[in-house]
Amino acid sequence: MSGNDREKWDAQDLIQWQEARRWLAKADEDLRAANKLLPGVVNQAAFHVQQAMEKTLKALIVAKRQEIRKTHDILLLASIARPLWPELIPQPFPIVEISEWYMVSRYPGLEDIALSASDVTAALAWVSDFITVVRSQGPPDRP
């Protein structure tokens, strides 16, 4: 079911998508932060890209009335979301390496994982496009 006709959605679907949109709004904030930080503050931009992807996958899980796990693991979240959204979650899931960006950006001693501005920028673009696709799956906004 795509989001083109609001009458096709039952009340619980609408409630779940309202919650999913809250997750997507937080993901948007992370993308804006990453854009502002690049190209100068790469590790912190990477953190926000990872967070945007994490929140987007959690939005998909919430939209299907499932409990979300408290995890930062993109591969795990994608594997949870895939059976719920097989048409959206490719196998293998791209950019799973961004899971480690959460740690690299937060803790010292992980400098052996070098992040480049170009890698973070490419991931940011992929996540941004993915969020757009995810948004299109929900019901239209209220008039």
Describe this structure in words.
The chain has 143 residues and is mainly α. Helices cover 59% and strands 0% of the residues. The protein has five helices and no strands. The protein is elongated, with a radius of gyration of 16 Å. The two termini are 20 Å apart.
* SS-derived structural category: mainly alpha
Strands, total number: 0
Multimeric state: single chain
CATH fold naming: Four Helix Bundle (Hemerythrin (Met), subunit A)
Helix content: 55-70%
Name its key features.
143 residues, mainly alpha, Four Helix Bundle (Hemerythrin (Met), subunit A), 5 helices
Structure described in brief:
The chain is mostly helical. The chain has helices at 11-37, 42-63, 74-81, 99-106, 117-136.
How does the SSE layout of this entry go?
Layout (H helix, E strand, L loop, with lengths): L10 H27 L4 H22 L10 H8 L17 H8 L10 H20 L7
Helix pairs in contact: 1-2, 1-5, 2-3, 2-4, 2-5
